[in-house]
Amino acid sequence: MKAATLTSPEEVSKRPLRIADVKTPQPRAGKVLLRIRACGVCRTDLHIVEGELPPLRAGIIPGHQIVGEVVAGATSDLPAGTRVGVSWMGGTDGTCRYCQSGLENLCDSPTFTGYTVDGGYAEYAVVRSDFTFPLPDQLDDLHAAPLLCAGIIGFRSLRVAGVKHGDRVGLFGFGASAHLAIAVLRAWNCEVYVSTRGASHRRLAESLGAVWVGSETDKPPVELDCAVTFAPSGDVVIAALGSLRKGGVVAINAIHLDRIPQFDYDRLLWGERQLRSVTNMTRADARDFLKVASAIGLKPKVTTFPLDQANESLIAVKEDSIDGAAVVII
Question: How far is CA 112 from the centre of its chain?
């Protein structure tokens, strides 16, 4: 099969993914083989390819927002031909204290799609059958792919931030995940305030219903009930924290952050304001979000790239040169 493999992490400008023929994997017990139709491109893929997340396996195939069709290893629950989605959490041990207490996103021995096991920048992939999600017919391949990480983790971020219907919510950064989260917030009758760099991102936020849009250094004109940061920048986290009312929460949606700058506790954190990180997702998050996405007719804005241009898709994500999400089509 054709696949994009990473031998050694490098800056994406050097095009470190190698497009080549590799052996098609075969499923074992508890796993299914998918023929991949599309794979969303996530900023986490960028962190893996550039080495900001330490390499765990040479020759890994990145990609963890997989839309595929079951072609081998089918079961009564997943018959051949079933269209499914796969996300970042590719498996958990099921036995650690976190799995046993309903916090599988914090599992001590997780499997990550496209990082610890091969992912979706390929024609086929083997995945755990209990970590696949049958996709509603209303969600086509192209628009379902970005939902499977950017959408799910954005949805979990809203939960971590404690968003309630009608809240004033800040989104700091407006890429693939935030432009999906705003659709959920609008369905919940929230007022959405967006701070982000890039004129095209600001225009997109306005077109999707933000009541106020500013640059990454601008402060929203009202105190926010809660906020989610999407940029991998500690400066953005501090900006979000400075926009909160007392008792508000900032949820940091980033698997990698450059740093947290020193800040004034009395002015920014006192008053029972909270900083919380968002770590992975649970299968319940995925199932709940896909139901919401189907119900509200969520269709992300996408730019497509053929598998041969997987490096270019990552460059586009790094440079913020596209609005919405990038999707590799197979």
Answer: 13
Q: What is the pLDDT of residues 64-106, one digit of tens each?
A: 999 999 999 999 999 999 999 999 999 999 999 999 999 999 9
Q: How far apart are CA 324 and CA 143, in angstroms?
A: 11
Per DSSP, the three-state class of 323 is: coil
Q: Please say whether the beta carbons of 283 and 155 come within 8 A.
A: no
Rg (CA), the chain: 19
* Closest C-alpha among 242, 255, 287 to residue 42: 255
Query: CA-CA distances (angstroms) from residue 162 to 8, 234, 250, 275?
Result: 40, 21, 9, 12
Nearest Cα to 69, choosing from 144, 146, 154, 147?
Answer: 144
Angle at 286 between CA 196 and CA 58, to 5 degrees: 80
Say if residues 147 and 325 touch (Cβ distance below 8 Å): no
